[in-house]
Amino acid sequence: MTEENVQLTDKELEALKDAQNQNHLTSLVNGGSANVVRHDLVNRNNYLDVDEQVFGNISRKLADNLETGFSGVLNTPSKIKASEIRVLDYATFIRSIDVPSSLTTLSLMPMEGQALLLISSPIIFSSLDRFFGGVGVSTIGFSPNRSFANAESAIVDIITKLVSGALKEAWSPLLEAKFEKRQSENDPTKIQCFKNEEAIVVTQFEVNIGEEIRGEITIAYPHSPVRAQTQKYAKKLEESALISSENLAWSQDLKEACLGLEVELKVELGKIRSSVGGISALKLGDELKLSKLGMLDVTISGVPVFKAISGRAGERLAISIASVNKA
C-alpha cells in the first residue's frame, strides 16, 4: 500500500455493508451459500488521477510549441489546441484508434516506460502534399495492413521530431526527459509499449492546417511515472506558494513595525558666512540676515529625501514639498 490518501468507492462500501447485514460469512461457515461479489480494494487502478493543473499546463505549452513548429515547417498557418486529458486502460484506448494512423513509441528517460505518439492520417498526407508543392488537400490513402511508403515515413519522422522537441520543452519545468523515437508502425497490434490492463494518461490535440485539413495528435503516457512527476511538481509549487505567502506576511509585519519608528526630519532654511571675530561679537538681540536659498533640502536621518519651498502657514514658518528625490 502507498501513503496516498485513498477512499473506498460507494460500490465497495455498499458491498461491505451488505456482507454485514446479510450474514454472508456466517452462512459460508455453516456450509451454506452466499452471494460473493469481487472487489479489489488495493488495486491502485481504482484511484487513477493526475494533477490536472500541472498536466494541463504541460499540454497547453506543448500545443503552443507544436503550433509554432508546424507553421514553420509547412510554411502554413496552423492551429493546435489541447482538447482533453483522460485516464484509462490501454486495451480500451487501443480499440478507439482510428485506422490508418501513425503510431510511434518515445522513450521517457529518466522516467520509466515509453510514451505512444499517434498521428492521424490527414495530417500525414496533407503535410506530404505540401512538401511536394501542393495545397495540402490529398486524397491519398493506404490500407492498415501495409507499411508506410518511404515518403510517408519521412513525413512521420519530421513530425515526430517536432513533437519530441515540443515535449522536451513542455516538460522541462518538471524534468529533463529525452522523448527519443523507439519504434514506428501503422498497425496497433505491432506496438507493445503497454500491457492491456495498464493505466495510461492520454492527451489529445486538435490540429488545423490551413483552412482545409483537420486531424489529431494523441500522446499516451504510462500513468504511474507521469503521476509521480506531476504530483511531485505540484507539491513543490504548493510549498513555494506557502513560502511566498509567509514572506508576504513577514514583509507586511516589518512594514507596519517600520511605520511606527521615529525619525528626525531637518530642513536647512539658509546660510550665512562670518568670521570668528564676527561670531564672537554677537550679542542678544543681534539679527542675522540669511542668504536666500532656492529649493530647500529636506533630510531624514541625514539622507536628502525631498525638495521643498519655504513659506508661511498662518503665522508659522512652513515648507511645501515640491519633489521627491530619485533613489
TrEMBL record:
It is a peripheral membrane protein. It is found in: Bacterial flagellum basal body; Cell membrane. SUPFAM superfamilies: CheC-like, Surface presentation of antigens (SPOA). The keyword Membrane applies. Keywords: Bacterial flagellum, Cell membrane, Chemotaxis, Flagellar rotation, Membrane. Belongs to the FliM family. This is Flagellar motor switch protein FliM. It comes from OM182 bacterium BACL3 MAG-120507-bin80.
